[in-house]
Design a protein that fits this description.
Family: Belongs to the purine nucleoside phosphorylase YfiH/LACC1 family.
Shape: globular
Pfam families: Cu-oxidase_4
Strand content: 25-35%
Number of helices: 6
Distance between the termini: 18 Å
CATH superfamily: CNF1/YfiH-like putative cysteine hydrolases
Number of domains: 1
CATH topology: CNF1/YfiH-like putative cysteine hydrolases
Helix content: 10-25%
Keywords: Hydrolase, Metal-binding, Transferase, Zinc
GO molecular function: copper ion binding; hydrolase activity; S-methyl-5-thioadenosine phosphorylase activity
Largest sheet: 6 strands, mixed
InterPro entries: Cu_polyphenol_OxRdtase, Cu_polyphenol_OxRdtase_sf, Cytotoxic_necrot_fac-like_cat
Number of strands: 14
Radius of gyration: 17 Å
Length: 226
């Protein structure tokens, strides 16, 4: 991974096939642009054909899989030069693909999305069974992701045991989102290209965090396309 600057906007470049970029805090911040401005910037520098991101609601609707919806927490494409963005501010941006085929998913994976089964929904779809690789993007690390008992009960009510992903420190519960996500991917035999992910809470100089900044927080945008 390396940092690049595109017309004043800082980006972390993750991969070339597919192209994966993560917007970073900048004086000219990519996340503040309109969709048309984002598309124009990416067309100028990467010759993409189109760009889209979506209203997200911590659900399981996937653009390209589900029918028309007011919000989508994921996308699927099988076309080249169609760029998409997943917006996060502590949740996991999860990119899934097959480098030998034009199969690309992006998922907004907070705890509600993971609980609702958005990963399984993508990977069990007709296109999803072709997925071979994954990138787990920047998100809040377990030592900063404190959760309450009602959080744990939400999983228990669906008969999902998350004990192995919970640590207790000073009487408080902390959840490891990455490990929970990894477990899901491993079941499908998917190769995760990064062994660790930057913590959005700790990286104040480069990443936005809702837990840290509350209403002042903007969004990190994870971009991807073939």
């Amino acid at each position: 991974m390396k940092e690049i600057i595109i017309d004043g906007s800082r980006m972390m470049q993750v991969s070339d096939n597919p192209k994966i970029l993560v917007s970073l805090k900048s004086k000219i911040d990519f996340s503040t642009f309109s969709n048309s401005a984002k598309e124009a910037l990416l067309k100028k520098h990467f010759s993409i054909h189109s760009y889209r991101d979506f209203e997200q609601s911590h659900g399981d609707k996937i653009f390209g899989i589900d029918k028309v919806s007011d919000s989508f927490d994921g996308f699927y494409t099988n076309k080249k030069k169609q760029a998409f963005g997943i917006k996060t501010a502590d949740c996991i941006p999860l990119i899934l693909w097959n480098p030998e085929k034009i199969v690309l998913f992006g998922l907004h994976c907070g705890w509600r999305g993971l609980l609702s089964g958005i990963v399984e929904k993508a990977l069990s779809s007709n296109a999803g069974i072709e997925v071979t690789h994954a990138f787990i993007g920047p998100h809040i690390s377990h030592k900063h992701f404190e959760v309450k008992n009602d959080f744990i009960e939400a999983f228990t009510s669906k008969r999902i045991n998350i004990d192995r992903f919970i640590t207790i420190s000073d009487g408080k519960n902390y959840m490891n989102l990455r490990s929970f996500c990894e477990q899901k991917l491993t079941k499908y035999g998917i190769k995760i290209i990064n062994e660790s992910s930057p913590c959005s809470y700790e990286k104040n100089d480069s990443l936005f965090s809702w837990r840290r900044d509350k209403e002042k927080s903007l969004r990190n945008v994870c971009l991807s396309w073939f």
